[in-house]
Design a protein that fits this description.
about 55 residues; globular; 3 helices
Length: about 55
């Protein structure tokens, strides 16, 4: 079963992607989702990797 922390992380990733695609600034996303700097770096990296993979 999925833990509460895993579910929270999953939802933050989904909201991050949605907000980014809707044109929000990274600083706004970080503040509104309460993300730490390490989470921001990870989410941005994953978003970039998925974006480049879909372009192939």
């Amino acid at each position: 079963m999925t833990s509460e922390m895993e579910m929270d992380r999953y939802l933050k990733k989904r909201m991050f992607r949605y907000c980014l695609e809707e044109g929000f600034k990274l600083s706004e996303i970080k503040k509104s989702l309460g993300l730490r700097a390490s989470e921001m770096r990870e989410f941005v990296f994953e978003y970039q990797m998925k974006g480049s993979a879909s372009a192939v």
